[in-house]
Specification:
Chain lengths: 112, 109
Amino acid sequence: DGGITQSPKYLFRKEGQNVTLSCEQNLNHDAMYWYRQDPGQGLRLIYYSQIVNDFQKGDIAEGYSVSREKKESFPLTVTSAQKNPTAFYLCASSASEPYEQYFGPGTRLTVT
Amino acid sequence: GQNIDQPTEMTATEGAIVQINCTYQTSGFNGLFWYQQHAGEAPTFLSYNVLDGLEEKGRFSSFLSRSKGYSYLLLKELQMKDSASYLCAVMDSNYQLIWGAGTKLIIKP
């Protein structure tokens, strides 16, 4: 079964700690994305990667970091520099065409 | 700047028809997507329009007018399971998706 997995579904951390969210896909997609979703707002792009070992900042990259060492994997680290990290984080992937993005189930991060 | 506008919330009756509008202003246009998102879950793809006109897919249809910067999603024969948020997203000239805030659709029996 092809798809995208994210783990864990719920994550709790104390302020000041870094945390890494995993995202794995077996769809053989080149492009992968990380979004953040807050209540009442659209999805906001954090980082994206169109090829292994390359990634670009999205609209709200400050306080986040990523790596893309394998085609299948695109982990996101939420650092202590991120001022408001509590949110629903969604990972997605897409082929070059037809461009539609497929989403993982999401990770809900709560930082207290 | 880039902007996608859609109503925040709509209410409809089971078995009826509802139209969710989306207007956009973006840097370039490479297609418009509609996604469905149930509460607490990931968005799932519904439709893609890149040319003007109506695309029909079962109970769901999507319309695009590029000259007006306008799209709508039409849902027919509404079912309770259609209660969800519907997200409009436009692919800009850099092939990045610009997302609307979503329309929460409430279906009443």
